[in-house]
Amino acid sequence: MWAQTTSSSPYSTTGIGEEGGLPEAQYGALGNISGIVIDSTLINTYNPSSYSLMSFGQPLFSVGVATKFSAYTGNTGSFSGKTTGISNFTMAIPIGKYFGIGLGLKPFSRKGYDLSQRSYAYDDSTTFNYKGFGSTNLLFVGLAYSIIKNEKSYLSIGFNLGYLFGSVTNKRSSVFDASGVSGGVDLTTYRLKSLHYSFGASYQRFLDIDKRKQLFISAVYTPKISINSFLDYSLYYAVDVNNELSYVDTISYIDNSKGKIVFPSKQTFGVGYTFTPDTKTSDRTKYQIGVFAEVDLMQWKDYSEKFDGHTPASVFSNTFVSKLGLQYIPNIDVTKKIKGAKYFGKIKYRIGGQYGLLPNMMNGRQLKTTSATIGLGFPFLSQKTNSSLNVSFQYGSNSTGNAADLKETFYSIQFGIIIAPSSYEKWFRKYKLD
Predict the structure, then answer these.
(1) What are the two backbone dihedrals, phi and then psi, of residue 335, each rounded to the nearest 5 degrees?
(2) 333: domain CATH number?
(3) pLDDT value at 61 more than 80
(4) Into how many domains does the chain fold?
């Protein structure tokens, strides 16, 4: 299933494709913020320190799907594409008061494009076709420990250890139009099998005695890693470039060449603040407003491919992406029946946006990304459970700002479901009396 994750982006032509998967619904609505949003009712696998801050006896299971629709325009024409895939498949389990573990499977990179170009020379023309496909995925397990956990503050650290696997392929063919479908084909495939790890820390503190104001600080660090990789390269003459069985004349061939792909480090820093009003009377609704901000830094200039006889043509630039999210909960007291409080008062309303630089370069200019997001979190109120359905929508663009360069305008929709036992199902709790 995971090898079939699709993509349709010409920006995935370089390297091993676009980094990461599509946003998860609960975070995608907050400007794609990841590390700072730590909530006992959500699974945050981006910041592994969150695993120890879940409600005791309340393990969570999460699965999400997403679809992205893109329209590309440039001086050579326009076309559209669609990306669909599973965004996450994860589980988190609290262990005792101070520990927690997380595990799951999620996309690491994706490649998918289909581009054509025609070149004219004298009385003949040549059609060049470029295709890319495949994906890599990350199977991981994480552990978190709360160094401080009291009524005023929480300090937690954690790590994820994963296994990276999958393959991506670039295919290029050229055909003299006068000769029909015969021509040249070259294939380059990267197969990845390697360990992957990341570290996270989070700090939360109540700023007043009544616990109405809370400060959040987080940091996530993913070191630069050398990914164990294998390269297959072949160059053929084909009777029919669209039929692999017709690749009859092998001009060049490299099989199972072992090497390294150096993947860049990433740092994420976040800060958040939540506020709840001082309700003096019991009939007033207790709402909450949360503001979250985050910055992602990634050293893409460190990316390199090291294989004998292979020189990559890809060149990346370092990235900086800023994100801002706002969450509003009209009624945070889900256990108390407040007069006039309807179900829509317990929905989590989210809005956000992001702006930054992507690693891709076009004609010497770096790609910029801008998007706005919005979404809802629908709690399951039956039997007092932490289960929820989350939906988010994103609209944005990727471009260099130059009209001659390729521009992507996109919108995407994400769905995610989080399943937790009800409060009557006291998982992982010890009974003193039978």
Answers:
(1) -95, -15
(2) 2.40.160
(3) yes
(4) 1
